[in-house]
Amino acid sequence: MGSTSAENHGTEGVGRRDLIKRSAALGLISVPTMSFLSACASSGGDDSGDKAKAGKKTAKNPLGVNDTAGMEFVLFDGGFGKEYAEDAVKIYEKNFPKVKVKFSATQKIQSTLQPRFNQGTPPDLIDNSGAEQMDMGVLVGKNQLTDLTPLLDAPSYDDPNKKVRDTLRPGIVEMGQFDGEKVWILYYAYTVYGVWYSQKALDSLDEQYPETWDQMLAVCEKAKKKGMAGWTYAGKYPYYLPFSLYPMIGKVGGREVLDAIDNLEPNAWKHPAVKACFDAYYELYKKGYVLKGTPGLDHIQSQTAWAEGKALFIPNGSWVENESAKVIPKDFDLAVSAPTGLDSSDKMPFGTIWASGGEPFIVPAKAKNAEGGMEQLRIMLSEASSKNFTSKVKSLTAYNGGTDGIALTPGLKSGVAALDKAGENVVNPRLQDWYVQLQKEKIGVSGLGEMMAGRLTPAEAIKKIQGFADEAAKDDSIKHYKHQ
């Protein structure tokens, strides 16, 4: 992406309904000739590795963990930090006093761990997250992961009469399923995606959060006159934009539009709702409402600029409160909202939001101590560990509860309120789980990033993205998934 600045160009307003009408014909689809995906993990490796012998199953050790076998845990060192995981490791070591857990945290998950997958020597538990996330669809398709069903069917850490699966938030188990009943991933955090802002800044403009795009543009214009940009985002990682853009597409066109995109259906990106929402976001660039220099900012830099009051809105997930804790002023009054829609013709109501599991934890198929990795997750899914996570990192977990007695921070309180407002209107796009490289590098960087930097028009971006999706759909080297 480089450090190209977003230039400010003024244009005449475009009517909301005209945005939809203009999206009927998008021209021919171009299919790039480059390879879609270089395998994130091979199926190589030596099966003769020293697997830990199974331990004796007891009420306190329902998974039969070998109480003398070492366990290795690699965490993504991101917005949630590592203290919550280190605390859970201490519980594991207390329960198995003869064991020392090898714990490490890194931001370079793929470059650190891909060689170990290829060699057949992966860790026992991995938080597969961040910019260097290994492609989950590839890992599942190449049989690189352990089925976590034994964990889900084990007694929960707090109540032996209740299975782990029965303590989880709705949708968590299904998110870990790719094809059939087996569960390959346990998403530990429960993330609210949307548009984040300072309620104090919005109040200073004497405005409420905009529900229609005309209102959004009016708020951005008012902010601009006071020297504040309307928006910023992680320009170097523009796959953050879908955190608000995808649920907006679902709001405008209905869930089926997002499902068709996930399913890599022909012409899914040519739906009028997609064009309307791309046009709407492009208006932010054309009218100069995006903070100058945003395409050159990474996620930390954009969040810092936003926290400093240089921009009003930022698309993000609920980890932002913890990740930006050092730069968010005490009187910021952090809030999150579901995305602004177009107008009253939208298929879904205002409040439609993207919320789903985040922080995908996996146990490799060739882990030496898979039972140990699952037991560590069982500990983390206890009420105490869940409360510890929520209180320390200001985010919910997959455990359905864990907030009693905790003073909710402004962002977390706002996130809970947004979920309550959404009710049944929660969407969960799966591209970022099923096709990581397509979502991040192609749709994000090469498509949305180029459009929001002014180097592609919405029509050109859609044509390019549809080409990427078609290429992925035709690529027999990757496993394809569909909504059931």
Description:
This is Putative Multiple sugar-binding protein. Belongs to the bacterial solute-binding protein 1 family. The chain is globular. The two termini are 36 Å apart. It contains 19 helices and ten strands. It has two domains: 71-191 and 356-413, D-Maltodextrin-Binding Protein, domain 2 (3-Layer(aba) Sandwich), CATH 3.40.190; 192-355 and 427-474, D-Maltodextrin-Binding Protein, domain 2 (3-Layer(aba) Sandwich), CATH 3.40.190.10. It is an alpha/beta fold.
Gyration radius, to the nearest Å? 23 Å
Beta-strand share of residues: 5-15%
Strand/helix succession:
HEHEHEHHHEHHEHHHHEHEEHHEHEHHH
Shape: globular
- CATH topology name of the largest domain: D-Maltodextrin-Binding Protein, domain 2
Give the assembly state of these chains.
single chain
Q: What can be said about the biggest beta sheet?
A: 10 strands, mixed
The CATH superfamily name of the largest domain is: Periplasmic binding protein-like II
Task: Tell me roughly what share of residues is in helical segments.
Answer: 25-40%
Per CATH, the architecture of the largest domain is 3-Layer(aba) Sandwich
Low-confidence stretches: 1-48
**How many structural domains?**
2
Keywords: Signal, Transport
Pfam families: SBP_bac_1 (PF01547)
GO cellular component, one term: cell envelope
Protein name: Putative Multiple sugar-binding protein
